[in-house]
Write a structure and sequence with these properties.
alpha/beta; Immunoglobulin-like; 3-stranded mixed sheet; 40% strand
Length: 145
């Protein structure tokens, strides 16, 4: 009877440890690696947000800094972008926010926010200054599958 209990206990412990082990699929997805650092977006009156489009891969982990120089109260938004990525966290002044959803960020003064996210769906997405239509007032994210 004691051997049966030991065997049952061993099987239970093995079953419990399986979900916590990294599978090859998880490792290949890049979710267990350090986030890929992207060139920052700079919010500044009359200046372009990004120098060139961002080329990303679906399922990868990225880190993006958004900086405001304080020259004007500016925001950046992109509901379609935020609906097609999983936002891990937004860090503002060493405060970590883990949101369920994001539509935009607004900077009333000089500052920086860091967003870490995982791309979910391939496509072309934008972050832009709300209410603008100019090409230089948006950052383009091309996400390949």
């Amino acid at each position: 009877m004691k051997m049966v209990k030991s065997a049952v206990l061993a099987v239970c412990l093995m079953c419990l440890s399986v979900p916590f082990a990294a599978s090859p699929t998880q490792a290949q997805s890049g979710l267990l690696t350090k986030a890929i650092e992207l060139p920052p977006i700079t919010l500044s009156a009359g200046k372009p947000l990004a120098q060139q489009p961002y080329e990303l891969e679906s399922g990868k982990h990225y880190r993006l800094k958004i900086r405001a120089d304080g020259s004007q109260e500016l925001g950046i938004g992109g509901a379609e972008f935020f609906r097609n990525v999983w936002v891990n966290e937004i860090v503002i002044n060493d405060i970590e926010v883990r949101p369920l959803g994001v539509d935009s960020l607004e900077f009333d003064d000089e500052g920086e926010a860091t967003i870490t996210f995982i791309t979910i769906r391939p496509g072309r997405f934008y972050l832009k200054i709300p209410g603008t239509t100019g090409e230089t007032q948006r950052a383009i994210f091309n996400v390949k599958g």
